[in-house]
Amino acid sequence: MNESQSANPSQGCFCQGAGPQVSDLMSKLVPAETREHIRNCRVEFLKALRSLIDQRIEHLTRSEKKGATVSVE
């Protein structure tokens, strides 16, 4: 981070520091019950991503069968 960014931390941010202001506005306009539903939705979305990542990790670390199958008489 350079000196101009440390003087104005929102300068390097994509939202240009509007994030906290938008959060304040949303908390005033959106009912508490709705905010709770939105929060729960974000949690469930993250759980879905975790599930996808866990499945992919399992797929990549699954040991493959080595050798050939030979029938014995």
Which key terms come to mind for this protein?
73 residues, mainly alpha, 0% strand, single chain
What's the N-to-C terminus distance?
72 Å
Residues in helices, as a percent range:
55-70%
- The proportion of strand residues reads under 5%
How does the helix and strand content classify structurally?
Answer: mainly alpha
Reported for the largest beta sheet, the result is: none
User: Any idea what the shape is?
Assistant: elongated
Poorly predicted tracts of residues? none
**Number of E strands:** 0
Mean pLDDT level:
83
The DSSP helix count reads 3
Question: Helix and strand string, N-terminal first?
Answer: HHH
Taking all Cα atoms into account, the compactness measure Rg is 25 Å
Draw up the topology in text.
Elements: H1 3-7, H2 19-29, H3 32-61
Structural features, described:
The protein is mainly α and 73 residues long. It has a domain at 31-59. It has helices spanning 3-7, 19-29, 32-61.
Question: Could you give a short description of this structure?
Answer:
With 73 residues, this protein is mainly α.
